[in-house]
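Design a sequence for this backbone.
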């Protein structure tokens, strides 16, 4: 069962500014915000500018959620891939089924695999050019 499908707005260094804007313009409430500098045990050293970029944020818009983050420097960024869909599921097996289905005729951006915030997380662009982030919640 899909638990949630949320828009994810990917910015190129402007996520903090966008979050402040959406707080005002959309009356959004920031319920989570993490910079790249706050990532536990980063794999590579980061510049001070990179550390300030937003790794992930969750904004509540009434009962809905919207995510805003910055892309990594050098990552492809254009108007066409600025908004994606984040599918939140409850099991690794379900994440794998969705990911496998979406990648048919598409392109894997990040393989589905465990990461510090999820037991199964991956990014895939489907054959229509729509990018999906597949996120598995940690068991409660």
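Sequence:
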């Amino acid at each position: 069962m899909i638990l949630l499908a949320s828009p994810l707005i990917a910015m190129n260094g402007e996520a903090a500014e966008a979050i402040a804007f959406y707080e005002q313009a959309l009356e959004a409430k920031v319920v989570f915000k993490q910079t790249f500098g706050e990532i536990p045990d980063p794999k590579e050293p980061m510049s001070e500018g990179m550390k300030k970029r937003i790794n992930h944020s969750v904004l509540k818009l009434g009962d809905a959620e919207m995510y805003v983050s910055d892309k990594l420097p050098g990552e492809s960024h254009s108007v066409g891939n600025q908004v994606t869909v984040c599918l939140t599921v409850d099991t690794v097996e379900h994440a794998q089924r969705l990911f496998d289905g979406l990648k048919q005729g598409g392109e894997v951006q990040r393989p589905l695999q465990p990461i510090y915030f999820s037991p199964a997380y991956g990014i895939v662009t489907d054959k229509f050019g729509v990018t999906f982030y597949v996120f598995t919640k940690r068991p409660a």
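The mean pLDDT is 89.
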